[in-house]
Each structure stands twice: as structure tokens, then as C-alpha cells.
Amino acid sequence: MIKIDDKISIPESKISFQGIRAQGSGGQNVNKVSSAVHLRFDIHESGLPGRVKDKLLSLNDQRISKNGILVIKAQNFRSREKNKEDALNRLQKILQSVLFSKKKRKKTKPKKSVVAKRLDKKIKHGRIKESRKKVEY
Fold first, then answer.
1. Measured by CB atoms within 10 angstroms of the end CB, which terminus of the chain is less buried, N or C?
2. Are strands 9-10 and 36-42 parallel, antiparallel or unpaired?
3. In the chain, pLDDT over 90 holds for what percent of residues?
4. How far are the Cα atoms of 29, 64, 103 from residue 56, in angstroms, in the given order?
5. Is pLDDT above 70 for 106?
6. Phi-psi domain of 53 (left: phi exceeds 0; alpha: psi -120 through 50; beta: other)
7. 2 DSSP β-pair partners
8. For residues 71 and 65, what is the distance between their CA atoms, to the nearest angstrom?
9. Does 8 have pLDDT greater than 90?
10. Pairing between β-strand 69-74 and β-strand 2-3 as defined by DSSP bridges
11. Cβ atoms < 10 Å from Cβ of 113
12. CATH fold for domain 2-99
């Protein structure tokens, strides 16, 4: 079971893994061993609450196909186990980001006293600069 939060968890049977060869240079090990991992997660068949599914499907993410399958490719590590763990962590982060939305910022205005103080300073600074000018007779 992969725990997303206190109430929501995903059984590992809903997630499929496929070993693939990693991209990039690296010589013999990269060419022989399938250490990279594709994690496939079917959003429609996941058993997640409806609102979470809707938020996931509405994400503008290229990793989510039109069929509602989320594909995460992990190839940062040399071993398949670490890449599998990395892919699961990334899936967990994506699901947590959908669950917990940020609070909207309340618009605030500066206090009248602060505005008055700033304008007062501005006027004083302007007078100081004015006094530096040459005096014309």
C-alpha cells in the first residue's frame, strides 16, 4: 500500500512497472541492463475519490495520456530498485499536490499611517535634494 495521506492509500496492484534501458551515455552497463523504470498508473481504475481523479485528469501534464494513464519514467539511479522507489515517491508527490491546494492569498492594503509616513519621508528627502541646488540671485 502506498500511503498518500491519512485517508487515501493506493494498493500496489493498481500500479504497474516496466523495466527499460536508460537513456544517455554510460557505456556497457547502460547498453546491457534495463535499470530505468516506467511506472504506469491508471487514474480511472485507481479507486481514488472522484474529486481527486478529476483534479488529476485536469492537470496540464504531458505524463498523463488521453486514456487517463499516468506514466512516470525514473532513470536517475543505476539500480532498478532505487529507480522504482524514486518513481513511487514522484507518484506520491503528484497525488499529494493534487490533494492539498494552496490557500488563496488575502489582498491587503498598507495602513494609512504607513502611507503617510512614507510620503512624509519622501517630502523631506525632496527638500534636502532641493537645498543642494545652486541658489540663483
1. C
2. unpaired
3. 19
4. 36, 9, 19
5. yes
6. alpha
7. 10
8. 8
9. no
10. unpaired
11. 8
12. Double Stranded RNA Binding Domain (3.30.160)
Give the span between the Cα atoms of 49 and 59, in whole angstroms: 16
Residue type, 133: K
pLDDT of res. 108: 93
Rounded to the nearest integer, the mean pLDDT of the chain is: 83
Cβ neighbours, 10 Å, residue 38: 16
105: which DSSP letter?
A: P
Q: Where are the strands (E) in the chain, listed by range? A: 2-3, 9-10, 15-20, 36-42, 69-74
Higher pLDDT, 131 or 18: 131
Contact partners, residue 98, CB within 8 Å, separation at least 6: 52, 55, 56, 59
- Amino acid (one-letter) located at 1: M
Which whole number is the average pLDDT over 123-133? 94
